[in-house]
Amino acid sequence: MSRIVTFYKTIDGRCPIQYFLDSLPSKVTQKVTWILSLLEDLDVVPSSYFKKLVGTEEIWECRIQFGSNAYRIFCFFVDNSVIVLTHGFIKKSQKIPKYEIEKAEAYRRDFLERRKRHE
Length: 119
Fold this sequence. Notes:
Number of helices: 3
Distance between the termini: 26 Å
Radius of gyration: 14 Å
CATH architecture: 2-Layer Sandwich
Number of domains: 1
Oligomer: single chain
């Protein structure tokens, strides 16, 4: 299966995921790039790298472990063939902060609303 990975942009053109990726050390960026290639190429991506967040509005997380740091990138599907990356953060506790999930859900709603208006 082939999927397309793309980045969410706000109405004013900001790209939260790009800001996050630009802030990462190059070795972490290399691992992120590898995991994103798995999303594009594999029918079933191992849950150690990609899983749906239970109790959310169809939000998924890319899971990147590098050294002692855990990085998360939130995303959602459009038409089962496009994955839209919203934003990322460094996970510092066992539980994902609620505001990070709410942010991803808001980005998803914004994306789908603007897409609907342009159909």
